[in-house]
C-alpha cells in the first residue's frame, strides 16, 4: 500500500516523536524532586515558568544528513551540552538499506561553535566540528532556517581492526520546525 520511502519517513517521524516525548518527560520530571509541604503547586509552576530558556536551545531540531531520508537530531541542553543522534542508511553488505542510529557520545555548543562525536555502530562513527549559522529560510517553518557548516569526519574500523577516516565539508540544513508553542 505504501512505498518503501513513505514507510521510512513514517518510521523516522514516529521515532522523532517518541524521542521528543521521552525527552520532554525526562525534562518535566528530571529526578522526581521532593516538593516541600509549604509550597503550593501554583507557586512551583510560576517559579518554573519564570526560568529563562536554555541558550542555544533554538538550534535544537532535525537537520538533513548525507543522503535523502537521513537526518541528524540535535538537542541543546544547559551549559551548552548537546545530545542527539545521526540516523542513516547502512552501506555495508550486512546492513545495506537498514536505518542505523549513531547516538552522540559527546557534544558541545559554545556560542555558535558546535562539536559532536558519535558512538561506533557497525564499525562506523562520526565527528563534526563547525558552526550553526542562519540559512536562507525566512522563518522556523522553512527548510534551512539554520545550517550546520563544518567538517564531518567518518571513521571506520574494518574486520581486520584497520582504521580509516574520511573528512568532508558539509552544510546540513534544518528541517522545518513547528512555529506554534
Furnish the topology, listing elements before pairings.
Blueprint: H1 4-28, H2 41-49, E1 61-64, E2 71-76, E3 82-89, E4 99-110, E5 113-118, E6 124-134, E7 146-157, E8 163-173
Antiparallel strand pairs: 1-2, 2-3, 3-4, 4-5, 5-6, 6-7, 7-8
CATH architecture assignment of the domain at 57-173: Beta Barrel
- The helix/strand series, from N terminus to C terminus, equals HHEEEEEEEE
Helix content: 10-25%
Estimated structural class = alpha+beta
Rg over alpha carbons? 19 Å
Percent in strands: 35-45%
The major β-sheet equals: 8 strands, antiparallel
Strand order of the largest sheet: 1-2-3-4-5-6-7-8
Q: So how many helices?
A: 2
What is the CATH fold-level name of the domain at 57-173? Lipocalin
> What is the first-to-last residue Cα distance?
34 Å
Mean pLDDT: 80
Q: Which characteristics define this entry?
A:
181 residues; alpha+beta; Lipocalin; eight-stranded antiparallel beta sheet; 19% helix; globular
Describe this protein's structure.
With 181 residues, this protein is an alpha+beta fold. The chain has a domain at 57-173: Avidin-like (Lipocalin). 19% of the residues lie in helices and 39% in strands. An 8-stranded antiparallel beta sheet has the order 1-2-3-4-5-6-7-8, with no helix packed on it. A hairpin with a 6-residue loop joins strand 1 and strand 2 (71-76). The radius of gyration is 19 Å and the shape is globular. The mean pLDDT is 80.
Short description:
This protein is of the alpha+beta class. The protein contains two helices and eight strands.
